[in-house]
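Revision sheet: structure tokens.
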Amino acid sequence: MSFAKSLALTFDKKFRGYFIVLLIVSVFLQLWPVFFTQPVRFALRIAICNVLLLLSVSAVYRYVPGKIITFILTLALTLNFAVAFSCWDIYQSEFNTVFAMSILATNASEAKSMFGLYAYLLPVVALYFVVTWYTVKSLSVNITPRVKFISVILLVLFMGWFAVTCFIKKSKTWRFITL
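Predicted:
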């Protein structure tokens, strides 16, 4: 058995009971730049959504399609974290349309030279990916099927509520429902 595999198995056995701590660490890493750039209600919404996403994806993690879904979701969350963290760390600002337009207008040589500006953030981003992946893996083993089912239902309800409130805000009617 290789050293890396034995180290991974030892790590897996020692930290199996710490799935709640891993969930909290993963969510707080995602919220780190949000606390400095957004109001508390947005941070709360993001925290609830992240917890429900991780609990829901742990329901399907045991199967191969579930592992693919988990990888895609973890990659998307990591990309979101990388963009938010780098904008906060370098510019002390949130990601906005000006940054998006700047990225779209960048050519290959500019992107290569700018990579040096963001390269030191890669260990933090990699840490977030590993923590989030291991969180889903440990949640899939340690929480009951009932909790997984309830988390999927709550995620659907949360996303539906959020979509309806956004629609109502845009249509400027029924003001009493929105936050």
